[in-house]
Amino acid sequence: MESSPSAMLRFLLPKTPFILKTAVAHTLYLSETSSKWDLRTELTIKILRHMLGPHSKTTSISKQQRLTTKDPGVKGKVWISKVKCSVPEDGDAVRKLLFKAIEDLKEGGEAYDEPASTPLEAEWTGYRAAAHHQTPEPEGLSEKEKYVELMRETSSKVTLLYFHGGAMYLLDPATYRNITGRLAKETGGRVFSVRYRLAPQNPFPAALLDALTAYLTLLYPPEGSPHQPVPAKEIVFGGDSAGGTLCTALLQLLLQIQRTKPDPSSPATVRWHGRDVEIPLPAGLALTSPWLDVTRSLPSIEALAKYDYLPPPSHTHTMRYPPCDAWPEKPPRAELYCEGSALLHPLVSPVAAKDWSGAPPVFFSLGEEMLRDEDAVLAQRLYEQGVKVRWREFEAMPHCFGMMLEGLAASRVHFEETARFCRDAVEGGVESSSGQFIVAKSLVRREVEFGKLTDLTADDVRAAMIKGRERIEKRHGGGMTETRPML
């Protein structure tokens, strides 16, 4: 969307009655969220909900991608160094390792493409202390020189391998520079943001292959890379929403590789740029409102919609994407990200994965939002299998509130907690699990027992996801595809 003042005025003017009605209801405590939100939050969330809801005009996939992947340029308190790494001549070894894991985790019948490896595009982000918010990027510096300047301002060993959100079909690392810049500042480290391939043009497992390639690139940089090898104990996987899908899918992939290595007494390896290299686990995962169930079928998807701006499936069942070059696919498929038959695969919907034993510590920061149930199911499962978990749930906050509502005190706490986890995971270790529910406005913290995060059993989750898959495939059989908001 165009963001000039005149464009914003044109957009908001027709919504004046709706805005006034919302403001009056909030002021008179007639809104059920008046006691949880300030007026600015109420207006922001409800305008977004109105924009994304069933009465909005659905835009084609191609147009949405053009609008959300534009590079806004580099300015402000960030160092950005762009990198492009070539595909190794022995890149088939990485692909085959991924495909084997997919096959091993199949229950039967799941279909998927076998994407080729492509050159990895990414960018390093660091904090630029001396700049102001409108300071332009320095002229005349090469990408390597920018990286050197970036490294001079780091004060910790944290390297955050970051995967952006966007429902697997939107956004780009360039649109996340304010977020990755803040994470670099808060952690004192650096952020490596990956330009993974977007669906529907590149369905599962293309993005996951890119994620694995990015991790190997950090561990064992190809010739010409600006960075030195990064030890796995200094790497944290980070991501929001659909980026959380990739984080958890990548971790499950690494665990599966460990479980099925030919020699249990030796480390798992893969051929990479002419040599056999080990595939270790990272120091941890830092997840923001992770999307873990691509079927969008657990109870909170509908039950907690009152606190979210994302429309639930019941509100979007009549919506469809206008046809374009990107969608519908030919031959057609039921879901943007994957074949309908693969929706319950553990590397597509990580909440379906049963075994997480041996995983590094995992941090969750989320609102009381539509994705709450799937996040709680995974957090509880991790804890029960001996994984260290930090759970931070913010009362009445929507999806990715820390990014959407940056001025809120709760958002400041979100970034502080995320950074603290990253530093602890890298510098000292996460010694124990911790669960907290953070009360709206007051930010009072209440301890949470992991055994009481959710009452949903594994059977409950599977039954709901099967129904969700049936819902998606039924719509596809009727000539429609389930639209979904920008997760």
Automatic annotation (TrEMBL):
Assigned keywords, A-Z:
Hydrolase
Q: Which GO terms describe its molecular function?
A: hydrolase activity
Q: From what organism does this protein derive? A: Trematosphaeria pertusa
> What is the name of the protein in this document?
Acetyl-hydrolase
Q: Which Pfam families match?
A: Abhydrolase_3
Cited Gene3D superfamilies = alpha/beta hydrolase
Please report the stretch or stretches of sequence annotated as the Alpha/beta hydrolase fold-3 domain.
Answer: 160-401
InterPro entries in the record, alphabetically?
AB_hydrolase_3, AB_hydrolase_fold, GDXG_lipolytic_enzyme
Q: Which domain of life is it from?
A: Eukaryota
